[in-house]
Amino acid sequence: MWNGVAISSRLRTRDESAALSGDYRPLLGLLQHAQVGTLFLELCTPRAGELEILKDLPDDRRIGIGVVNQKHERIESEDEIVSRIRRAIDLFGKDRVLLTPDCGFATFADNPVASATIAEAKLRAITRANEGLQG
Hints:
By secondary structure, this protein is of the alpha/beta class. It is built from three helices and four strands.
């Protein structure tokens, strides 16, 4: 069994309209049978569809939930992130949910989508939201 697999749309642009869109429904069969321990999924962007589509994934899979969007410079509020986390925990259970940015930060050396400053601020926002939940 592999440790994990990441599934994402096009990374090298901030233009959401240039990235792939659609929910994970066409991939459900593959995701249900993939021999991996963790699925890392873009779920913060509206392009990814509804989280509820994934509710029937096998219980032995952890789900890396994208809770901040690397394509935007706006730093998500703690409340926005907490809301996404709670929704994921309600569907999958606390022990299965991992907090991630959507698809890393696309920090290509020659064409970074997210600056280091924005990436660090978004990681701090994820940390604060998680600490608030652990409270």
